[in-house]
Design goal:
Elements (H helix, E strand, L loop, with lengths): L19 H5 L1 H10 L5 E5 L4 E4 L1 H6 L5 H4 L11 E2 L10 H4 L3 H8 L3 E7 L9 E12 L2 E11 L1
Antiparallel strand pairs: 1-2, 1-6, 3-4, 4-5, 5-6
Organism: Micromonospora rhizosphaerae
Protein name: PAS domain-containing protein
Length: 152
């Protein structure tokens, strides 16, 4: 299980909102952070296209290289999710709509869940992954979701 530590360097005092140009760049800042992250993470936009993914995220999700995935829809970019039964059947569209990156996007809330990812041509059990997702806001509305992954 991933360990996360937070620290505050100063006390947060609510104040005026940042200018619109700074707030709208929020998505771009997350894209840069995810692209350079050592941790397995993923950023998708409101249309479910992959905006950024870390190299370790590609490796954990059996997706190849980031440049092969960025710009493509998440579920059409080679991500193969299977259920937790012995048969390991591929998830249906109705089931994939409930995975954390998509659930956070549509529900506009935090989402967490386990996924079983199977690589191309893999006949094994696949990799079980814990996913924690949060919606990302731009100009006060959901512009995408940010997900962190951890192998279980």
């Amino acid at each position: 299980m991933a360990h996360v530590e937070l620290s505050l360097s100063e006390v947060f005092v609510p104040g005026p909102q940042p200018p619109a140009e700074q707030e709208s760049d929020n998505f771009g800042q997350w894209s840069t952070a995810v692209s350079h992250a050592a941790e397995p993470c993923l950023l998708i936009d409101a249309e479910t296209n992959v905006v950024a993914i870390s190299s370790s995220g590609c490796e954990l999700l059996c997706l190849g290289a980031p440049e092969d995935v960025v710009g493509r829809p998440l579920m059409e970019g080679g991500l193969r999710l299977v259920d937790f039964t012995a048969n390991q059947s591929e998830l249906t569209e109705q089931e994939t709509d409930k995975i954390p990156p998509l659930l956070a996007l549509h529900s506009e809330r935090l989402a967490r869940g386990l996924l079983r990812v199977q690589g191309p041509g893999s006949e094994g059990l696949g990799t079980t992954v814990d996913a924690i997702s949060t919606p990302v806001l731009t100009d006060g509305s959901v512009a995408g979701s940010l997900t962190f992954f951890s192998a279980v």
